[in-house]
Write a structure and sequence with these properties.
By secondary structure, this protein is mainly α. Among the domains are: about 90 residues, Tetratricopeptide repeat domain (Serine Threonine Protein Phosphatase 5, Tetratricopeptide repeat, Alpha Horseshoe), CATH 1.25.40; about 100 residues, no CATH class. About 75% of the residues lie in helices and about 0% in strands. The chain is elongated and about 145 Å long. The termini are far apart. The relative contact order is 0.04.
Length: about 400
């Protein structure tokens, strides 16, 4: 009698089961979507807060407010713990307040993850420089030069190489600095200011040939640049190219009359040109006149050393007695003096060489116990060096 109602109850249950399951599934889906939405909302809020704090940190970092930037980047990392950029910015801020060890911990962790990151390598190089770890500094600098950079990679790499060059110059690693400069030279391009800076750096490593080329390239790109004229004048002077040096130095002094360094070098250059009888394309008469002037300048040097008497027949008193070498040179000068005049030199051209050889000896062997050298003395020393090299 009761079996029929039971069957009806079961059939009713089974007919409702799909509806119940659908409702439960729907509720689960809604709950999942709600949780996901809340999670995304929370994540977005965290990211927004991280971005807000990091933006403050960037502004303070750029304005040199490093202490505040440290706090702001730390706060940003609380909301975005794995953000590499925030960690890098925090490291830079820590370096700004001299908390080098803390900065290093962040940087080396970033380097493990991003060994090709140019900024990370450059900061690690700077830390190594401060700790006087030369090998590590060089390694990280080279990493930075060939690393990946945001923005203009070529510019950033050149800047990293320039920083390395200045470091090498500070530690007197001139050969290595020159090698880096040669590598930089190929990437400078048509930029007058960069060519000028390149020339200045080549002067510092005493590569005068490349320095002159860089200054001349700068002047092609931007004429009437006083600094480039002065640099070209120094480089050509050091190379013994005195006519060229005179032109560049004169241009530098004309552009900047207060340039005392260029003016002094120009004066010496003009003395060299005035006292060098071996300059090409001068007449025999001019050569003879120059030889007489150079010989007389050497005689004045002997008088300054107390080895020759002055016009009054008296020898100039000196702090120390004249050296034997100076006295011997004075005897040679006196014996030759009556023969060194334009007429004698015209009759006997070999006397020019005799007069100049003696003048060069006097200037090279009277470096102590005499008055300070004059412009003429320095010029004769430079002329002697020039023709010894040739």
């Amino acid at each position: 009698m009761n079996s029929e109602p039971k069957r009806l109850d079961l059939s009713l249950y089974f007919s409702r089961e799909p509806i119940i399951l659908a409702l439960l599934t729907g509720m689960a889906v809604v709950s999942f979507l709600a949780v996901t939405g809340l999670s995304r909302l929370y994540q977005a809020q965290q990211e927004s807060l991280a971005l807000e704090w990091s933006s403050r940190g960037v502004n303070d970092l750029d304005s040199g407010q490093y202490k505040r930037a440290v706090t702001e980047f730390r706060t940003a990392l609380q909301y975005s713990r794995d953000n590499d950029q925030y960690q890098l910015s925090l490291a830079e801020a820590l370096l700004g307040v001299d908390r080098t060890d803390e900065a290093y911990a962040y940087l080396i962790n970033l380097w493990d993850k991003q060994p090709e990151n140019g900024v990370v390598n450059l900061e690690l190089a700077r830390i190594a420089v401060n700790k006087k770890q030369t090998d590590r500094a060089l390694r990280f600098y080279h990493n930075a030069i060939y690393a990946t950079w945001p923005g203009n990679q070529e510019t950033e790499r050149n800047n990293a190489r320039l920083e390395l060059i200045n470091y090498l110059l500070r530690i007197n690693a001139r050969t290595q600095a020159e090698s880096e400069l040669i590598a930089l030279e190929a990437n400078v391009g048509e930029d007058a200011a960069q060519q000028e800076h390149l020339g200045e750096l080549f002067l510092r490593v005493q590569d005068n040939t490349r320095a002159l080329a860089a200054f001349r390239e700068s002047l092609k790109l931007q004429r009437e640049d006083a600094a480039a004229y002065a640099g070209a004048g120094v480089a050509s002077f050091n190379l013994g190219m005195y006519p060229m040096a005179e032109r560049y130095l004169q241009a530098a002094v004309t552009a900047v009359p207060g340039d005392t360094a260029s003016a002094g070098l120009l004066k010496t250059t003009q003395y060299v040109l005035r006292l060098d009888p071996y300059r090409p394309q001068i007449s025999a008469a001019e050569r003879d006149r120059i030889a007489v002037d150079a010989f007389n300048a050497a005689g004045d040097r002997l008088r300054a050393c107390g080895a020759l008497p002055g016009p009054d027949g008296q020898k100039k008193p000196t702090a120390a007695p004249p050296q034997k070498s100076a006295l011997g040179l004075a005897d040679q000068w006196t014996k030759l003096d009556h023969r060194i005049d334009p007429n004698s030199l015209r009759r006997d051209p070999d006397l020019v060489n005799n007069a100049m050889d003696l003048a060069f000896q006097i200037e090279s062997q009277t470096t102590t116990g005499c008055e300070a050298t004059t412009d003429a003395d320095r010029a004769l020393q430079l002329i002697a060096n020039l023709h010894e090299e040739n």
